[in-house]
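Chapter review: from sequence to fold.
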Amino acid sequence: MVVYEHGVFAARVRFPAARQVKQKNMEHIMVDQQQIDRLHAMLLQNKTLQVLLDRAGELGMSNWYVGAGCISQTVWNSLHGFDPEHAIKDYDLVYYDGGDISYEAEDKIIQQAKDVFKDIGVHIDIINEARVHLWIEQKLGYSIDQYKNVEEAISTWPTTITCVGINRMHGVTKVFAPFGLDDVFNMVIRPNKYFSKKEIYDSKVEKWTKIWPKLTVVKWDDEQRGEEPKKYSV
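The token string follows.
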């Protein structure tokens, strides 16, 4: 069952510590009902995604979302007329456990997930966002402070179009979209420069545009950091 909250499909549009994108007044971004209905209809076509949303709660994670590329790519597939799961290489399942940021605790969730999702045959990338600061410099070449919550982490992902998370608990589906959904439906790849690097962004652009040719790309150098947005929720 889908429950609507505040007229926006249980959507939360918040702006944690992330930079405002040029020419986007993020304090006034709203996710309208038509966008939410449209997103919901498209995501329902991705059966793997629906299984993830239905079963993720079995892992006992706090404050979790399925997000990033699997959400936007499901939309792109619909708009391109492709199979809903076309070219989706993995599914990101993120959560926040600040009480135990050990690798062992995260790996316990990963091992449990192998059993819970053993029948769906896709790669699921599970990350405790509370411990990302421990390894990100070695992997991506820059350091960060510890995230305060999973929403803050989602808000710093490399492109605005992938800064979307979906959560389903007790029959209620929630959407977290700190940059709104306009870029998602307009298929505009726009850099989110808060933590990302040009090399990371350009690599994603090159890969995605070969698969989804209708995508429009905003070049890294054409997008500038703006002011810190205020926290905002609806």
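Two observations follow directly from the output. Helices lie at 33-44, 47-55, 69-80, 103-116, 136-140, 150-154, 182-186, 198-211. The CA atoms of residues 159 and 191 lie 5 Å apart.
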